[in-house]
Structure formats: structure tokens, C-alpha cells
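hey m, so remember when u said the C-alpha cells were messed up on ur end? i reran from scratch. heres the input so u can diff it against urs
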Amino acid sequence: QVIHREGAGQADLRLGWYGIDRHDPNWADRQVALAIMGGVFNSRLNTVLREERGYTYGVSMNAQPFRAGGTIEIATSTQTSTAKDLIEETLEIIAVKEGFSAEETAAAIGYLTLSAPLSLDTAEAVTAQGATLAAARLDLDYVTSALAALSKVTPSSAMEAYQRLVDPASATTVVVADTSELTNY
């Protein structure tokens, strides 16, 4: 889907899929897989698209769980003239020809577990987390059990969860740009 935005200085891109919710037994595996692919600064997507190719200042791959199901989204922006190349490279990277390494998996688990307390550093954040858990029909001890589940994720379990959820061929792609500036699209 291409959406014309007259005078847009760059192209904003989103690729997405349906996802899972926190009740799914593969939730922790999915968290680790998405962190490896695009959820942290040294992710595969950011390393190639930002550091190696210079297409973007940053790219992220995140999940939004709902009460039932959810979404997975890759988000970035680029010069309009490189939008097609960025999308093609993104689809190639997310096809994952090489499995997740033990080092990548350990780093993702470390990031997710060590950053979790920071998301609960204020009374407002704790209240918001409690409301989110209640809306998702999860017990208040969910945060503790979710952190424990992360420690059980392996490179192969993360890869299996990722491959079940992310199929490059089925991505919904949205580009918002000045279409008169899109080249090779």
C-alpha cells in the first residue's frame, strides 16, 4: 500500500503481521526473537539498514499484544529514493537464512530482563502495568513469571517462534511518501 503525502521529505515505512498475545506459550521466545531482529539497537535490522547501508537513522521491530492476538511491526523511515531498496533488504533480512546464535540470544535475554525494572520505576508506570495486565486478564505475578520464562529461551526456540510468526511473503507493507519522488517503486 502506497499513500501519497504531498511534499513529504522522506518515506515512512511499516511492515506488519498478525501476532500473538501474552497468553501464548511462545510469548517469551517471540520477545527474544524480535529483540534480536529489531528490538534493540544492535539488532540485525539496525546493523544492516542503519550501520552498513545508511538507509535510515533507525529501524525497530516490535509487537503489540492485545487481549487476544496482536500485531508485529517493523517501522522506519528513509529517503524517498531509497524506499524500494530498504524494503527489499528488509524482506531479505527477516527471511533469516542463518539461525539465532547463542550470543545473540543471551544478549537479547539480558537486555529484556535488565531493562524490565526500568519500565516500573514510577508509581504511574506500575499503575499502567497493572491496568494493562488487568485488561489482558493476566495475574499480577505475570511480570515475575514472564521474566522467568525468558531465562528458558534457547536460540532454537526463539527461531521456531519467529518463523511461525514472521513470513516475509505475507507482510502488509505501507509506504507514506510523496509518490512523485518515489523511484524504482
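this time it looks ok to me. The mean pLDDT is 93. if urs says something different then somethings off w ur setup not the seq
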